[in-house]
Every structure is written in C-alpha cells, then in structure tokens.
Amino acid sequence: MAEFKVKSKIVSETNSKNLFQRPDGRGIKEMRETEAKVGVVPAADGSAMFRTGKTIAIAAVYGPKKMHPQHKQDPATGQIRCEYNMISFSVDERIRPGRNRRAMEISEITKWALEPSVMLDKYPSQVIDVHINIIQADAGTRCAGINAASLALAHAGVPMKDLVSSVSVGKLDKTLVVDLTKEEEDFEEGEGPTDIPISMTSSGKVTHMQLDGKIGVKQLQESVDLAKESCEEIYEIQKKALKDAVDMEAKK
Amino acid sequence: MERKVVIPGEIIIEGDDYLPGDSTEKRDGKIFALKYGLAEEQNNLIKVIPLSGVYFPRRGNVVIGKVENINSAGWMVDIGAADSAFLSINEVPRFVNKDAMDEVFDIGDIIIAKIWVINKRGIDLSVKSRGFGKVEEGLVFEINPNKVPRVIGKEGSMIKLIKENTGSDITVGQNGAVLIKGPTIDDELFAKRAILHVCEKSFISGLTDEITKWFEENKK
User: Fold this and answer.
1) CB–CB contact B146 A162 (8 Å)
2) Which site among A25, A130, B41, B150 is 20 to 30 Å from B18 CA-CA?
3) At a CB cut-off of 8 Å and minimum separation 6, what does A227 contact?
4) Residue A239: its chain B contacts at CB < 8 A?
5) Chain A, nearest residue to B38 by Cα
6) Per-10-residue mean pLDDT for chain B, 220 residues long?
7) Residue A211: inside a domain
8) Which ipTM was obtained for this model?
9) What is this structure's pTM?
10) What are the chain B neighbours of A202 within 8 Å (beta carbons)?
11) What domains are defined for chain B?
C-alpha cells in the first residue's frame, strides 16, 4: 500500500479497515469539486457544461427536428441521437480525434441512460441531437457527459419525467469510493480497481449501470446505495444551475 | 401560488385541489413539471410556461415563413417547426395559373400565413384572410418563439408601445419571426433593437414601464 496510506485522523472516526487516504485527500463518499452551468453554447437550442474536478464536459442539444435520413424516421416515437467525443487535447497524450470504438460505445450508453426520462412520444418522426464534448478528461467522462446532456436537454425545453444524474463508484482493493480520478482508476494494489458508472433519476430509479472489474453481490448493492447519495448531491447542483440561469437574466 | 422556476421532474404542488395543465403531469396526487420553465397557477390549474425550446406549431397560429419548394398542388413553406408546412393553391384567395405558380409565390419569398390544420401528414397553411400573403418589403428577423407572448404583451400592449414609438408596422409570427415595416430603415432597426431588448428583459415584472423608460433614453 504505497500510495494509499492509512490516515490516522480519520481512522479514529470511522471503521479503520475500510479507510484509505485517497491521493487527493478526499473522504470515500466525497465527490470532487463540482460545477454546472447552462447556456454555454448560444447557437444550440440547449446547452450545458458540467465539471467534476479536472473532468469537463460540454453538451449541446439541437432539436427536436425532423429525422434525416428519412428511412430512420419512426412515426411511432421520437428518437435521441448522441455523439460523445473526446477532444484530442483532453488527455495527457494527444488522442486521435474522431470516432473510435470507445466513443461509439459511450455514445450509445449515454443514449440509453437518457432515453427513459425523456418523453419522446410527443415528437414522432423527429430526432433530438445531443453532442457531448469532453474538453478535459480525468476519469468519469461518461458520467460528466450524461450529467451535462441531461441538463442541456432540460435547457432545450424538451419534456422530461426527471433529470438524470450520474456518478462512478469504484472499488479500490476492498474499499468502495465515489467519483474516481484517473489516478485511482489505475490503482493496482490488492484486488485492483473496479469501476461502476451508475446513472439514476432524482427519484432513485437506475437508468444505466456498467461494471468494469470484479465485485461481490453485497458490495454491488452497497455501491448502488453510495451512488444514490452522490446522485442526490449532483441533482441539487444541476437544479441550482438551471434555476440560477433565470435569476441571472432577471438581474441584468 | 407564486410564480417560480421549475425543472423537469420537480414537484410543483401537492394536493387534489389542483389540476395539471400544459407541460405538467399528475402522479400520486402530486403535480410534476415536465419542462424547464415558469410554473403558474390560474383557477387551480397549474401550468408551466417553457423558457426555451423549438417552435411547437398549433392550429390557428399566425406564422411568417419562407417558401422552400413548389409542386403542382401548392408550396412548401419553412416555418421553423420540425415539419415543413404546406400551402395548397386552394387556400390562396386568387386565381393561380398552374403553369406559373412562381408568379404568386416564388422560392425564397417570405409569406405571412395562418396554420389551418395540423395532422399526421403535416401542417397545412392558409392565406385566406386580410393581411396574409407575400411580404413585399420590410425587415424580417427571428427571436426565441417562447418570448413572443412577451413581445406582444397583455392584449397587445407591448407591441402597441413599440409601434407608437417607432412609427413602424410590426407583425410577430408565433414561430418567432418578426416583420417590421417602417418609414425608413433607421426606424426599422430601432424597432428591432427595442424588440431584442424586450426579449432580453423578458423576466422583469413591470416590463412595459421598463420599455417606456428605454424608449425615453434611446430616442433621438
């Protein structure tokens, strides 16, 4: 346990077995500094920025508009199209810009995470385009992307049952922690890292969950509970971002 | 209930005394907002006025659109909605020569029309009324369609104020397109500035007084 030394001060407060000192000194349930803002892309119908720590996502929503190509139109319901993209300078070593397998997967995952809350049946044969750009990445980009996209959809005036909030829960060796950084994701001691991005609505309904690594059933349940607490915090931040946008305009 | 900003999924009010109106939903005796906007109560009816979003066409709306295409039955018009609208030759109150339909409305012409029917196939327009038809001159620009009620004001008070102060004739389409016809280009641009100012300040209560003040400050 080279990097994750036991912090004596916190140990006295809680169960000693489960406490690491995280590299940035956060508690296990503590998220990184989080910030949200809507209306960052004036040309879009709705847009939002979501930042947690060093991860920054920008989402822009266009539509609802007529679906093109025409053969993809569905007269029964509307559709969402998501496009997740990491900008080439978002990570330490430049990544090749454009679509790749990872981006395609995350685009689809984001769509699945948002679809249950958006009332698409009101827009038959139409499509809502959601573009997510990660301008700076430090793990948890899909969660930041989903948070930003959910805000942007609301800001675009799309009818929704609820906002979607997303957070990644990780298991470092045997400890569950919330909102992993890249450093923690690369943790190699003991059982190694497990990354579980979870998205849920404010009423606690899970819309998306992925698992990368190994975890027991009991701990998985615990991690969902942890995610629920963090998602509530994120929901409050999202709510504030949307409400502040109006008050600011009124003061002008 | 006081006017307040709500977000999708937020509980506006609880209790069986209230009915859900536009952009709201009732679940387990609670009224939820479905859109981001301002929640309002009127005779126990709760509704949300959206702040943003694309134009959602409704029957009877007066719109300003651009002719996109001509076919044998009529004209396709872009009115800023997801579906493009269709203006049939039967809905034009004059004789139309089918061989020279571009003499009536050519591609690229701006027209004022009324939404006649909305059905599964699309939107049908009509120009059978006074004041409708081709726009021959003036300045056309677009504003957020959700701000149109603000620009018009209660019983047209705001638009009347702007008309009086700029000496221009103004038509506001429900789809957010605004047409200004003034004596000079300067008057038209002044009216445009006034309308954009209304859109910017649309959250302020006592907006009409604010705009009256703005006119006093900015009038040459």
Assistant:
1) no
2) B150
3) A167, A169, A178, A196, A198, A200
4) 7, 10
5) A246
6) 89 90 91 93 90 90 95 93 90 89 93 92 91 92 92 90 92 95 92 92 82 86
7) yes
8) 0.86
9) 0.89
10) 9
11) 4-50 (2.40.50.100), 62-134 (2.40.50.140), 139-218 (3.30.1370.10)
